[in-house]
Records
---
Amino acid sequence: MHLAAVACGERHGEVVNMLKTAVTLSQRALRFHIFAEQQLQTSIKADLDSWPAFIQGKFSYVLHPISFPHEHHEEWSQLFKPCASQRLFLPMILRELDSLLYVDTDVLFLQPVELIWDMLMLFNSTQLIAMAPEHEEPRIAWYSRFSWHPYYGKMGINSGVMLMNLTRMRITQFKNDMTPVGLHWDELLMPLLQKYKLNITWGDQDLINIIFHYNPEMVYTLPCHWNYRPDHCIYGSNCAPAEDEGVFVLHGNRGVFHSDKQPAFRAVYEAFEQYTFGEDLRQSLLSRLEVALNETTHTYCGKASHFFTTGLQKSVRRLQRATPPGD
C-alpha cells in the first residue's frame, strides 16, 4: 500500500505522527513516499530509523525532494501554502506507481490503511479518485456560499485525503472549460491556474474542484468519516457515518492539533504522539485517550469525541485478535 505526504516548514512532527498512526493500526505492508524540504529530510529519516525493528518490518520509505515544473516553480511553490500544490504533480512524479493514497500531514488514521486502500476495488470504469465532500451541511458550506469558480457537486470536495488510480489519471483526457477537446492531467494544470488564479482561495484544492466539476463521473465519493474535520462537529454533529461507525480518519486542519481551539482533536494527536510502540494499545493509547477526551466535553467537538474512540476501539480489537498472546 503506497502512502504519500508532503512536509514543509514546521510539519516534521505532524508527518511522523501521521505515519505512526498508519503503521500502528495497519497489518499490511506500507510504502511511504515523503516529499519534504531538504532541511526536514534528515530529521524525518532519523525518526523513522529510530522506530523498533518489529515496526520497521511493517514499512519501507523513500524521501523525495520538493519538485515543481521548472518554468513555473515559484508560482506553484507559493500557491496557498508552501509546497501544498506538490500533490497535484504526484501522477507525473511517481510514474512507476499504479495507485496511491495521499493524505495531508495533519491527518491521523484511526482505522487501518487497508480499509481505505481496498476502496480502489470499488471504483467503476470511469472513477479514478476518491475524496470526501468539503461539507455535509449546506448552511456552513464554503464553496456553495463564497466560491468564485466552479466546484464539484453541491458543496465541493476536500483534498486532504485522496485515493488515486494514478494509471487512469495519467491516461485520461479531462473535459474542461478552456479547450473543445480533453486535456491530460499534466497539460491541464498550468492553463487552469492561469485562468483561475485570481478567483481561487484554497489553492490547489480549488483547482481539483474545478477539474472534477467538469468530470464528476471520475470521482468516488468517500463518506465523511474518512476525512473528519472540525467543521463536522464545531456547530453540532453533521457527519452521520461517524455517528454510526465512528471516525476513521481524523483531519486536524486549521492547526487544531496544536492549538486550544479544538481540545478533542489535540487530545487524539497527543495520545498517538505519546504512545510508545509495543505498549498495550488498549491501556497505553485508548484508555489514556478516553480520559483526555472526558476533559473536552465543554466543547461541541468534545461532546462528539466518542466518535473518535469508536473507530479506534474497532482497530484495537482487530489488532488484538490478530496478535497471539505473548507476541
---
Amino acid sequence: MKLLIVICIVHAIFIPCFSFDVSGKDLPFTLDYYKSTCPTVFDVIRKEMECIVKEDPRNAAIIIRLHFHDCFVQGCDGSVLLDETESLKGEKKASPNINSLKGYKIIDRIKNIIESECPGVVSCADLLTISARDATILVGGPYWDVPVGRKDSKTASYSLATTNLPTPDEGLISIIAKFYYQGLSVEDMVALIGAHTIGMAQCRNFRSRIYGDFRATTALNPVSATYLARLQEICPESSGEGDKNVTAMDNVTPNLFDNSIYHTLLRGEGLLSSDQAMYTSMFGIQTRRIVSKYAEDPVAFFEQFSKSMVKMGNILNSKSLVDGEVRRNCRFVNT
C-alpha cells in the first residue's frame, strides 16, 4: 500500500508544503480509518494537546519521547503504556525508561475524553502517534498527516525495552545499528534525534559527557567554557549527587522546535555523548554531513523529520495486527 502524505510547515503566513509517498508492505493504516467510527478524534486530541502544551511546553518533548520509546519496542503498539501486573512484566521499569519516561497521565487524560465520545474505537497506539504529531506542531515544528488503524498489543517486552533503545553514552555505530534494525536509515536517525531541540536531560545522562570530552569537542572555546561551568553547577561530578537535576539539550531555544540543536552540535556543545558523536565521531562521516545540512537548511530538516516520523510510526507489531485490541484503559489489557 502506498500513502501520499502532505506536509505543511506553518511559519507566519507562508506555508510551504511537501508531498511524498510512504511505501510499505501491505500497510494496514489509512488517513480516514476513523472517518465513520470516530470522526472527531483528531480534533479532540489536538484541542487537548493545545491545553497540555500550554500548561507546560516541556510536555511536547515528553509525548514525542514516549512515542519513540513505544515504536522501538515491538512496534508502535502502545506496549510502553502498560502497567506491570502479576501476569505482565511491563516496559516502564526497563533501564532506558524508568528514570526518563513521563507522560502516561497525559495519555490517560486524552483517552478518557475519547472514550466518552467514541467508546472502544480509538487505540492507545494511534492516540499516542497523533499526540506526538500535534505536540511537534504546538512548539513550532512541522505538520504531517498521520496514517491510523493501529491496534494495541496485549503484551509488553521488558527485555526489548532494555536492548532496543539507544542510550545517552552509546557509541555511534551501535546506535546506527539499532535504527537500521527498525528499518530506519542514518538520515532518519539524524532527523529524529533533532527532536532533542525541545528535550530535557537528567544529570545522570550527561555527567560523563561534561566531565569527559566536552572541552575537547568545543575546542576550548571561552563561551563554551562558561556554558560548561553552568552545566557542572547543575550536575556535580560525584555519581548519585544531583542525578535527577535537569537541563535543556538545546540551551538556545529550548521550547521551540527548530534546527538549533544542530548548531549546538557544530559548536561541539551537544549535551549527550550520543548526540555529539553524530558530528565529532571518527565514524561519523555521513552523519556529520547530514548534521551540517540540517544546521544550514531548517526546511530540509523539517521535511525529513516529518518523513521519518511517519516512517517510524509505521513500524508494525505483526502480532497485534492479528490479535490486538483497542484498550479501554491504556494502562491495562482488556479483560
---
Amino acid sequence: MDTSAENQSPSSSDVDVTPRGASSSVLRALQLIQYDDDDSKLQAAKEIRRLTKTSQRCRRLLSDAVIPLVSMLRVDSPESHHESALLALLNLAVKDEKNKMSIVEAGALEAVIRFLQSDNLNLQGTATAALLTLSASVNNKPIIGASGAIPLLVHILGHGTTQAKVDAVMALSNLSTHTDNLTVIKQSSSIPAIVSLLKASKKSSKTAEKCCSVIESLVGFDEGRTALAAEDGGILAVIEVLENGTVQAREHAVGALLTICESDRCKYREPILREGVIPGVLELTVQGTPKSQTKAKTLLRLLRESPYPRSELEPDTLENIVCNIISQIDGDEQSSKAKKMLAEMVQVSMEQSLRHLQQRALVCTPTDL
C-alpha cells in the first residue's frame, strides 16, 4: 500500500496563513513552520529569524509562528534545531511586547530553563539572550522569577561565556525591578559574580551600568551590603563607575554608596573614604543629574567627621563639608586630588551663579525706556 500521501507535507491550500499585507516570503515561512517534517521546520525557523532581524512589521506578521516555534523547543531534536527555533523566537520578541508575552504564554520557559543548564555553550548563551529579551516585559517578570531562572542566571554570571555573563546581568537587572525577584537574586548570593563582572568591564559600558543597577538594589539588604564590603575591590569598583560611568551608571553608583553609608555610617564611612571616593562624588555634586547631585551632597555630609550640623558660626556649606573630609584623608595624592576637585567645583559653582544672575538681569531689564 502506498503510504506516501500520509507523510506528504501539506499544501498551501491546507494551511490558513494569509495575514493581510504579508509578503510571499512571510507566507512561505508560515507555511513551512506548519509542516510535520523537521527539515521544513528548521528551514522555516531560519527564514523567520532572517525576516524578523530588523523588521518590526515582519515581527507582527509572523506572530502566528510563535506556537509552532515553541513546539520545536519541546521535541527531541538535534540541538541545532532547538537553537534555530530559539533564535527565531528571540528576534520575534525584540521590541514587540505582544510576542514577548505570547512566547511565555506558549510555554517556552520550560525549554529555556533546560537550555540554561546545557553543556552546549552556544545553546546556553542563546537561552540567556532569550531571557534577557523576554524579561523586558513587565508582565513576564514575575513569571520568569517563579520559573527558577534566576539562580541559573546567577550561575551563568559566574561561569558562562563573556557574552552570556553580560546578558545574564542585564536580565537580572530587568528582573530586579520586581520585588519578589529581587529577594530571589539576593538569596542566590549574586554579589560576588556581579562584582567580578563589574571589575572586568569598562566602567563607561552598559554592562557596568547594569551591574551597578543590581548592586544598588541589593545593598538595600544587610546581606547585600555585607557581601559587597567583603568582596576584594567591591566598593572600589562602584567608586570607579561613579567616576567614569554613564550618566545613569553614576546615579546608580552614588545611590549604592549612599544607601550603604546611611545604613551604618560608623561601619562603612572609613571603607568608602579609604577607596578615594571624594573626587568622584565631588564632581557629581556639580555635573551629575539633579538626583545624582542631591545624593552626592547627602553622601558628602555623611562622610564628614561629625554627622551633626555645624554651628551658625561655621555654616554647613558644601565647601566646609569637603574641607572637613579632606582633612581626614590619609595620603597626599588623594588629598591633593580632592583639593583640586574642590577648587574646580567652586569655580564651576561661581560660573553657574554668574550666568544665573546675568539671565535674571536680562529678564528684569526694561526693553522700552
---
Amino acid sequence: MVGFRAGDVPPTATVKFIGAGTAACIADLFTFPLDTAKVRLQIQGETKSPANTGHGPVKYRGVFGTISTMVRVEGPRSLYSGLVAGLQRQMSFASVRIGLYDSVKQFYTKGSDHVGIGSRLMAGCTTGAMAVAMAQPTDVVKVRFQAQISAGANKRYHGTMDAYRTIAKEEGFRGLWKGTGPNITRNAIVNCTELVTYDLIKDALLKSSLMTDDLPCHFTSAFGAGFCTTVIASPVDVVKTRYMNSAPGQYSSALNCAVAMLAKEGPKAFYKGFMPSFLRLGSWNVVMFVTYEQLKRALMAARHNWVTPL
C-alpha cells in the first residue's frame, strides 16, 4: 500500500475552518504587542478619547519607543491588554475569512479549474464581510482595551466581560457594532489584498518551479502579502481604529472621522502606526499562514488515520 501524504488530498472545509482559527490565535500570541503599539500610535493626536480619561497625554515615538514607553509607564502586561477579546476575535474572524475563502472561491468559479482574479477578489470581499458581521463586538472591545491607559485607578474597563457589559449599557447594543462600516471596508481590502496576493505569489512560485509547496514558499508568499496589505489598507485601518475608540458623539460617522483627521493632522495621519502595522501584519501573516498550511496537513493526516481501518 502506498503511504499517505496529507498534501495528496485537498483539505476539507472543516479542516480549513478549524486550522485557520487556531493558526490565527497562535499568530496573535506572537504579534499582539505590535498590534497594541499600532493602536496607540494611530489614536495619538486625538483631542479626546474615552480610553485616556483622567490621564495626561502620553507621547509615543516609533514602534519600539511606544513599546518601551508602555512597559515603563504601565508595565509589560499592558502590551497584551485586550488579548482575550483578540483571541475571541481571531477564532471567529479568521475561521470565517480564511477558512471559508477556498470554498467561496470555488462557488464563484462554479467548479471550473480556472480561477481568475475576479473570483479571488469576490471571494475575499465576501468572506471578509461575513467575518466582520460575526466578530465586530470582539474587535470593538479589543481596540478599546488596547487604547486604554492601564496605569492608575481610572481604568474604564476591568475585564473582557465587563467591557461588553459597559459598552452595551452606556452606548446601547449598537455600541458593540460601532465602526462596522469602516471595518467591513477595511477587511474587504485586507482580505482581498492579503489572501489574493498570498494566493497569487504562491501560485507564481509554484508554477515557475522556483519553490515547492513547503515552508520557504509559504514564508515568502505570506511576507509579500503582508507588505502589500499594509500599504493599501493603512488609511482605512487608522480611521477604523479612531472611530471605534471614539467617545459617543465625537464623530458623526466614519467619513466625518476621516475628514476631521485630514483637517487637523494632514494626510500623514492616515499612515500613523505604519511601521508597527507592517511589522505586525508581516510577522502575523508569516506565523499564521505557515502554521495554517502545516495544521491543514496534520489535520488531514489525523483524519485519514481516524477513518482508515488498521
